[in-house]
Amino acid sequence: MESKPILMCLVIQIILLNPAYSHVLTADTIGDGETFQLTNQDLHQSSNNTEPIDLLSTVINQSVLGKREKESDNQTYDKIYNYSVTIPPNDDPADIYYPDQSDVKNGIDSFPFALLLQGANVDKSFYSEFARVVAGFGFIVVVPNHKSNMILTKGLYAEESEVNEVLAFMESENVRANSPLFQKIDANTMVLLGHSYGGVASLYAIQGSCQFPFCIGFSYIRPDALKGGAFYGTNLKAPIGPIPSLDNQGLAVCLIQGSRDGLATPAETKETYNNIKDEPKAYITIQGANHYGITDVDNPPGAKPDENEPLISQQESIETIGREAALFLRRFCL
Length: 334
Known about the structure:
Elements: E1 10-15, E2 24-29, H1 40-43, H2 55-61, E3 80-87, E4 92-99, E5 111-117, H3 128-135, E6 140-144, E7 147-148, E8 155-156, H4 161-175, E9 185-195, H5 197-207, E10 226-232, E11 252-258, H6 266-274, E12 281-286, H7 314-333
Helix pairs in contact: 3-7
């Protein structure tokens, strides 16, 4: 297959032939206006190939999206550890997942960190498997529980201020002598992960705008350390009015969408993607996954249920979403 220029316009739809991995992934990436398609023949090395082909990483490795040389599609770190902390000033309990420091690859001595902003009333514990997948690709992943009083009912609702608060905490954690991550955090490289409501808060933080109910006040200052994000089940559809444009100011944004999402519909997410101003950006569909394809269990207790049942297992959807998010962030934000 002929090499294509970096950052071209790409529209791909591929049906993966492996029976254990038979859902359809769709990826769009906007660049200089050219469009082409990759076929199954392009992706499969032979008709006897039994390994699943990863769409996003395959495209990246064709130098369409990548800024780096080809990397392994597999997780880099096998052992993932976690510990619990309290994040000031709101005393938010949080879990931190990190790769085994003794398993450092390629001379890496510090890790970028990802803040995962939770979906509405989804407890942090339900993101444990997803956080472990992302951490396996060389990220420290911070998953807080944040209670907000900015909407009519109290509960777990993400806010833009968490971005700045967690950054300050991780800077201090990096210099705390008895921290498990002492001098292991790259505090200059922060990315965002988000689910549903938390993804919306993240998008407005990336834009650098204070948007109620995710922020109170007249302005929001986006930290320089923030490099981009990847979000699941997220769109900017408000109860009234059209979907607004998003000025991401060159920060990388990836929207990952379950085809059976009954709460944040694919059409609304695709329109949100179309309204993101700058590249790099990507839109990826996970066929068969519903709104809670990212959580340890479908319809976690306390959260608004999705009536659409998933057609793939939680394990498959979590691993797929986590891998695609991590690969995108590694290519564009590090």
